[in-house]
């Protein structure tokens, strides 16, 4: 297990370094720079050159890249060119909104998808199964921003149960703050629940067809004990893999939903920074989000290896991801 852990940590570091290099080079090749945006198109060449020197844009790209990596290592993410404040503080304030939003959406998605997947698998071919399949198809086909608009129209405009947008801040109380996150979390959760319900259904169908399940039935075990004591525990291995990957997506994939609800989270900060060409914020934020996704993938792989020894034995290092894809293939055949 130790050698597997070391190998995965080395891969994590290499992937994160490669991602940082790709992001840095991509922003380097964009036309224009922060100095031009700050001063406008009417600025003189001397003024523009002075500001470029102040921002360090006149130095070689390789030196700036190494300095940027050193700053990451020490926790110094630099200063925003537009707002003139430390980027680390900006990201911390926005993460205090995006992370609870992702946690609530994750809990809603799990609470919806796993019971639906079990229901579909245990009533294969019946009305419940087809209803779950229909829900999954709609959830996969409809983008989450459309769900967000629909939720606003129903629960904010017509019923008046929730605000249509904005965030009161945690200092105003946990209740009002969580209330403001309910609708955006639901919009995020519906699409993810559609995916997770299909994976749960596929995993349960495959598990229920195993020999040990037939043996348990032959021994006279109750339906509930077979379903929850044997089938569900083994079916949760690929489901747990998808859960980890979905949580990473929910943290970094809420850009549009946060803008629909005017939530000052990481997604809204990223979009604003792109429009304002605050490239240092864009660079830091994209790398941090990429690092979070890579870290979650690492943790999922380690958890999978702790449950199933085959990745540690070198059978298939990416077994966690293969299991998820196999689930979709079995799902299509079963449907």
UniProtKB/TrEMBL annotation:
Main location: membrane
Protein name (database record): ABC transporter permease
One Gene Ontology cellular component: plasma membrane
InterPro entries (alphabetical): BPD_transp_1_N, MetI-like, MetI-like_sf
Occurrences of domain ABC transmembrane type-1 (ranges): 95-304
Compartments, record wording: Cell membrane
Record carries keyword Membrane: yes
Protein's organism: Marivibrio halodurans
Tree of life domain: Bacteria
């Amino acid at each position: 297990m130790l050698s597997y852990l070391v190998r995965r940590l080395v891969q994590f570091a290499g992937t994160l370094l490669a991602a940082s290099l790709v992001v840095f080079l991509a922003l380097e090749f964009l036309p224009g720079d922060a100095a031009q945006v700050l001063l406008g198109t009417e600025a003189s060449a001397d003024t523009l050159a002075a500001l470029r020197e102040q921002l360090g844009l006149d130095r070689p790209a390789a030196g700036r890249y190494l300095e940027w990596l050193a700053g990451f290592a020490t926790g110094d993410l630099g200063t925003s060119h537009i707002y003139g404040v430390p980027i680390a503080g900006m990201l911390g304030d926005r993460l205090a909104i995006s992370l609870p939003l992702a946690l609530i959406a994750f809990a809603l998605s799990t609470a919806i998808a796993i019971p639906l997947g079990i229901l579909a698998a245990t009533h294969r071919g019946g009305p419940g199964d087809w209803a779950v399949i229909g829900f999954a198809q709609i959830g996969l086909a409809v983008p989450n921003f459309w769900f967000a608009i629909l939720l606003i129209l129903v629960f904010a405009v017509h019923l008046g149960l929730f605000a249509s947008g904005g965030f009161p801040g945690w200092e105003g109380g946990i209740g009002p703050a969580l209330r403001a996150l309910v609708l955006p979390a639901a919009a995020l959760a519906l699409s993810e629940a559609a995916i997770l319900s299909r994976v749960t259904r596929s995993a349960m169908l495959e598990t229920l067809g195993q020999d040990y399940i037939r043996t348990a039935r032959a021994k006279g075990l109750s339906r509930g004990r077979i379903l929850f004591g044997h089938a569900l525990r083994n079916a949760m291995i690929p489901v747990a893999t998808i859960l980890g990957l979905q949580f990473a997506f929910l943290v970094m994939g809420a850009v549009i939903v946060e803008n629909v609800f005017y939530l000052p989270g990481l997604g809204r900060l990223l979009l604003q920074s792109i429009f304002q060409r605050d490239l240092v914020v864009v660079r830091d934020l994209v790398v941090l989000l990429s690092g979070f996704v890579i870290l979650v993938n690492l943790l999922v792989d380690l958890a999978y290896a702790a449950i199933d020894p085959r990745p540690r034995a070198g059978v298939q290092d990416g077994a966690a991801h293969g299991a998820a894809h196999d689930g979709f293939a079995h799902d299509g055949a079963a449907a």
